[in-house]
Amino acid sequence: METGELNPNYYPARRAAAVVQHYLNTRYGSPYRWMFLGNVHNASSEDVTEGRKYQLELTIQEMISNVSGPCSAELLFPGAGTPQVQASCDWLLPNNTRAQEEAFYQQHRDSHNLVSGDRIPDSYGHMEPTMKPFWHLGGVASSFIMLEQSNQSTLYNMAQVANFTQLETEKDQLRFQYHVLLHEMVSQEIIHWKMLITWSPAEGVKVLQTDLQPKCNCEDPPDSIN
Amino acid sequence: MMLCLGSVGLVLLALTVQNGHGAPDSAGWNGKDTTERNYYTRYHNMTEISDWMEKMKRENPDVVSSMVYGQTYEERNITLLKIGLNSTKRKKAIWMDCGIHAREWIAPAFCQYFVKEILQRYKTDTKVKEMMKNLDFYVTPVLNVDGYIYSWLNNSTRLWRKSRSPGPVGCTCYGTDLNRNFYANWGTVGVSTNCCEETYCGSKALSEPEARAVTDMLGKMSGDILAFLTIHSYSQLILVPYGHPNISAPNYNELMEVGLGAVKAIKAVHGMDYTVGTWPDILYPASGSSQDYARLIGIPLSYTFELRDKGEYGFELPEDQIQPTCEEAYAGVQHIITYAHDKAFYSSAATVTTTLWTTVMTAWVFSATLL
To answer: Best exposed site among A80, A183, B29, B245 by fewest CB in 10 Å?
Structure first.
């Protein structure tokens, strides 16, 4: 593994930067705030006792407001377990999307009209406008899983929200059951996860439970051994 | 200089031509397609694409013909469109295939767009016309026909990648990754030997009829192909050979330089960033790809395009992004094919000298005949 300065366009820097993206979504993401990696400007890495450490300068794009800004990050891939990230993006203020989030929260907080949806986006990349915030929320919640699952040999994106169902609001948190499909680029696998998540403007996104679904080898008879 | 002007000119033309679309279509079109502009901004199933290929032939009989060059596992035709002005001489060729991975729907959409563009442009654009005269374009809109049809079947099949051949004895899963099945360092890196996995390289090299079909065609056309382009999604990359980390293409510098030119041309269209490099540098090591095979048999310019996006929508790219994606990809492809064409027909001193001598000899023979 290359040590020292890394080519910012090469995959080691980009995979590390994607982990920073996932981290930022877990910290700042919401139904109206979803971050994606733009470009990596500088990257370096070295072996340390605990694992492999990366230093990165990158641009992050917030997809809903279409605002981009610089971030610096330090990331540790330990021998095993969740990567540890420290990142500062001074321009990512938690309060920017307050109004939209509040409105969305109030709209769905009352459990009289529980929402659900499936296949977001659909095969043609379409989704109903009312489903968009739930798509963002699924992406942000998936970031918790993608962060935890990431290592130097992976690159994750959420491929689709297979379905989601709103559950009764509890302790002022909106609650949802999500089934998401994650795309892991290096293996090219589609990985199914179910999650129980909560969100409120005050508390942000929290993932209470995650459940890896077995790979559907759909040609198999139901009780075959994989 | 001429190459430079040609590329710029075509990009400018692309930007102006796109505003002129919208002429009503003629009869014989599918009912729901109203204008040509609507057609190329939607995804189409295999039946529609097959019908469209027939229509391209019907409407342009002097420049478009088709060729069935193999059968898929499920015994469907693998068809390409051969596009070029008729010639008595044997012509050089550009190869483009789309849809080797079923779920990458934007790729067949691009092949369709590309065909439509060159058929429109060659009548008025001198550069495109020249290329149509000197070259034949061999375009396969959907290579993995079985996989593509399967991905249209229902909600759970949309993200299918591989072919649809059954697994080896003892494995109940289906499909081989066609882009790991070619005879190019087969089975060495970046593959799975688990037949249930997405990069399963097959029981042996060229176990898949789709890979064999391409291999056989390339064999027949061998010395004639100037550029081999294979279209995928997503990630916004232009990949150069080889997929194996320990092997370098002899013309790596040329591949990178032309690739960088393509990336620049792409960015000029809608500002999108694409990255160029080898697989082990910018993506992951992999073996058995069609691009590697093409380079190994001597095709100098061999590129894999990974189109939009970078993960937001991924394989399910919205239809309203088809047009801009195709426009920028066209600019990138056009940079490469212009370079390939000009290199073959302009830059070689030997070629110029041969042309000169042929002209002199022809004039001498002609004048001799007159006497």
So the answer is: A80
3-class SS string, chain B: CHHHHHHHHHHHHHHHHHHHCCCECCCCCCCCCCEHHHHCCCCCCHHHHHHHHHHHHHHCCCCEEEEEEEECCCCCEEEEEEECCCCCCCCEEEEEEECCCCCCCHHHHHHHHHHHHHHHHCCCCHHHHHHHHHEEEEEECCCCHHHHHHHCCCHHHCCCCCCCCECCCCCCCECCCHHHCCCCCCCCCCCECCCCCCCECCCCCCCCHHHHHHHHHHHHHHHHEEEEEEEEECCCEEEECCCCCCCCCCCHHHHHHHHHHHHHHHHHHHCCCCEEEEHHHHCCCCCCCHHHHHHHCCCCEEEEEEECCCCCCCCCCCHHHHHHHHHHHHHHHHHHHHHHHHHHHHHCHHHHHHHHHHHHHHHHHHHHHHC
- Of A19-23, A162-166, A221-225, B308-312, the poorest mean pLDDT is in A221-225
Q: Are B333 and B341 in contact (CB under 8 A)?
A: no
Is residue A95 very low, low, confident or very high in pLDDT (cuts 50, 70, 90)? low
Average pLDDT over residues B254-273: 98
Chain B residues with CB under 8 Å of a chain A CB are 42-43, 105, 152, 155-156, 158-159, 161, 172-174, 177, 192, 196-199, 235, 273, 275, 277, 281-284, 310-319, 321
Give the whole-angstrom CA distance, residue A21 versus residue A38. 9
Q: Do B156 and A216 touch (CB under 8 A)?
A: yes
pLDDT of amino acid A32: 96
Give me the amino acid identity at A213: Q
Tokens of B125: 């654009």
Please check whether residue B110 is in contact with residue B307, taking contact to mean a CB–CB distance below 8 angstroms. Answer: yes
This prediction has a pTM of: 0.89
How far B96 CA sits from the closest chain A CA (Å)? 23
Q: What is the mean pLDDT of residues A79-85?
A: 95
- In terms of Cα–Cα distance, which of B39, B66, B237 is closest to B142? B66
CB B292 within 8 A of CB B182: yes
CB pairs under 8 A between A and B: 88
Q: What are phi and psi for residue A163, nearest 5 degrees?
A: -165, 160
pLDDT confidence bin for B34, thresholds 50/70/90 = very low
Chain A CB contacts of B196 under 8 Å are: 215, 217, 226
Q: For residue B47, which amino acid is it?
A: T
Phi, psi for B275 (deg, rounded to 5): -115, 140
Chain B residues with CB-CB distance to A158 below 8 A: 314
